[in-house]
C-alpha cells in the first residue's frame, strides 16, 4: 500500500509562543507552512504551570509587538491562563495554520532528493524545511540524589499545582530560581513549614527608581547579552510577579518563616545534608542585586533622567537564624518533611528529529537557530541568539531572523538559469 504524502514547504513543530511567532513571520514572508501541535495552542501555559503562576514580566513587556493584553494594566502581571488566551488570540489574528492534536513522531532527511520525510499522527509529510519549536523547558530534571523513599511525596516543580496537593507536613523545596522561590513562598503563606535549598542565583530588583527590572535589563543591553557570563551558565534568576510583583530577598523570606539551607548534597539513612554554601550564595546574589542598582544609577546620571531616588532599596536585612547558623543536616522525620519539590530545571530533547543537527551530548548545533543540518531550524531554545531568546518577547525576534533565512534559501532554490527558463517556457507553450 502506498502512503499518500502531504507536501508543504516548511513544517513547524510546536504551537507555543515560539511556533506562533514562527508562523507569523513565515506568513509575512509568504512561505507555505503548517504548524503541528500535539496538544493545544500554548498548552504549557494552560496546563504545564502551577495554578497561581503569573508572568515574570509585566504585560507591556512580556508580549509580542503586534498585540497588547486586552483590558489589562500594562504594568500588571498576567496569569498563566491569560497568557494562554493571549497566544490563542494572537494565532487567530493572522489565521496561523495550526493543526492541534497532531504529534510529530519522526523526521528523517530524504535520500537523493531535497527535504525531509515526516511521520506524524495525521500521516506523512514531505517538507523542505523543519523548524523545531518544541520548547526550552521540556523534560523536567530531578537529580540522581533524589532519595528512593516511598514515605516521601516527590514531585518536580512542573507538576506542582497548589499547596493542597501535598500531604500534611513540612516541605523541602530544592532549587531557588523563579519557580522554587515562588512555590516556597506560596507554601509558607499557606502555613506550611518550608525548607528552601538555595544555590547560586541572580536576583534583580523587581523594580528600582520607578522602572521594572525588565526595563533596566533592556536599556542596559543585558537582554541582548549573546552568551552566558563564563562561570554563570548554571546561575538561575529569582524573580516573581506574584502578588503584584516584589523583589526576592532571601533574608526577608527567612524572616517571614522560610528556612533557608545551602545546596542539597545527599540523602542517606533518613537524613538530608546540605552544602555549607548558603551564605556565599546569598552574598553573590546580593552582589548581583547591588550591581544592577549601581548600573541603573549610573545610567540615570549619564542620561540626566528624572527618576526618583530610592535609597531604601539598599536596606540590608539582618541575618536570620538559618543564615547565622546554617543547617547542614536534617533528619527528615524529625523535621516533619513529607514532601520534596524538585525545582531543579528542565532539559531539552528532540528524539523525533533524527537528523545530523546535534553534538555528541545531544545538544542542538546551530547558529542563531540555523542548524548544522541544512533545512533544520531551532527556535525558542535558551540563549539561541541571546539572553532573551527563550522568553516571550525574545523568541519573536529570533523567529523573524529564521523566517528571513528561510525566505532567502527559497530564493536560491527558486533560481533557474537561462536554459532552464527557456525549457520552462517551451513546456508552458506546449
Ligand atoms: C514556570 C515557568 C514560568 C515562565 N514564565 C515566563 C514569563 O513570565 N515570561 C516569559 O517570557 N517566559 C516565561 N517562561 C519561559 C518561556 O516563556 C516558556 O517556557 C514558554 O512556554 C516557552 O514557549 P515555547 O513555545 O518555546 O515552548 P512551549 O511552550 O514548551 O511549546 C512547545 C510546544 O511543542 C509541542 N510539542 C513538543 N513536541 C512535539 C511533537 N513531537 N509534536 C508536536 N508538538 C510537540 C508541545 O506540546 C508544546 O505545546 C517560563 C517558563 C516556565 C517553566
Automatic annotation (TrEMBL):
Keywords: Oxidoreductase
Gene3D superfamilies: FAD/NAD(P)-binding domain
Signal peptide (UniProt feature, chain positions): none
Keyword Oxidoreductase: yes
Source species, domain of life: Bacteria
Keyword 4Fe-4S: no
InterPro entries: Auxin_biosynth/cation_transpt (IPR050982), FAD/NAD-bd_sf (IPR036188)
Pfam family, one: Pyr_redox_3
PANTHER family: FLAVIN-BINDING MONOOXYGENASE-LIKE PROTEIN (AFU_ORTHOLOGUE AFUA_4G09220) (PTHR43539), FLAVIN-CONTAINING MONOOXYGENASE (PTHR43539:SF78)
Protein name, per record: FAD-dependent oxidoreductase
Organism: Neopusillimonas maritima
Taxonomic classification: Bacteria, Pseudomonadati, Pseudomonadota, Betaproteobacteria, Burkholderiales
